[in-house]
Amino acid sequence: MTAIKFDILPPPAALKNDVECFRAIEYSGDEGPSINVCISGLPGIVFQHHHGCSPIERIVTPSGSISDVPTLYIYGQITQPGIMKHKAGPYTMTQVVLKPHALNTLLSLNAAELTNTGLLPLDDLYAGDLNDQLLEADNQQDHIALLTKFLLDSRARAQSRDKLVEESLRAIHKNAVSITVCSLLAHLNLSERQFERRFIQTVGLAPQFYIRVKRFNEAVRLMKTGRFERLTDVAHALNFYDQSHFIRDIKAFSGITPKSLSQKVNDFDPTQRIIAFV
Questions:
Q1: Burial 32-41 (b: 16+ CB within 10 A, else e)
Q2: Total-model pTM
Q3: What domains, with CATH codes, occur in the chain?
Q4: DSSP per residue, 90-121
Q5: Which of 29, 76, 123, 215 is the most buried (most CB within 10 A)?
Q6: For 146-168, what is each residue's pLDDT tens digit?
């Protein structure tokens, strides 16, 4: 991935509760890279182009493929890893990495309706000419400024937040290794059925699946530290029931075995918020 340059920018203070970061990416190579994208638990917005056209040829997952990729789109949660196959030549991409609840709290969308549904052109959901403005902008700093204005305008129109779900997300992120849905419910004045319905509507994933995703993210972080000589030690540190469950989850969320994943961790996006590799 030496031909790919990342610039990571934090969101403005007004968006810090809903946006993880902005990612400005430039690819300067001549060949079309194929980028494997793991499950991250984070939705987002992407603007990407080469001379006004989408540089993505198709996106392939175990259950199908997408070939008509817009230059500006929203993506929701996914439950399978995918491969983004790009056309030959350079391109630029500006990505808004949203927090897991932000489709609902920032954009007033039912996150469940966007899970595994492909890529939604932003202009299909919101009136305006943001895509044209982005195409006419001179550089990625202008792209980020335009996307920031759109998000701030969306925040001003946003409906009430589900603070209970956001509280549960903070608890999961703080202790993804050992937390369970039962332990969450012990602190929430809700039935399991009510909690799951609200969590899925806000995040787009069932709470138990989301906990597994966060534990996978933690597995990648631990591999990247280089502190563990054996992958079985990583599995043990993450409280996996046994080695087979560890292997199953790594393959389900990355598409490759734990050993193969451990050999690629140094190639990952430096933010570690989006886990991807060539």
A1: bbebbbbbbb
A2: 0.94
A3: 4-157 (2.60.120), 163-273 (1.10.10.60)
A4: -EEEEEEEE-TTHHHHTT---GGGGTTS-EEE
A5: 76
A6: 999 999 999 988 878 999 999 99
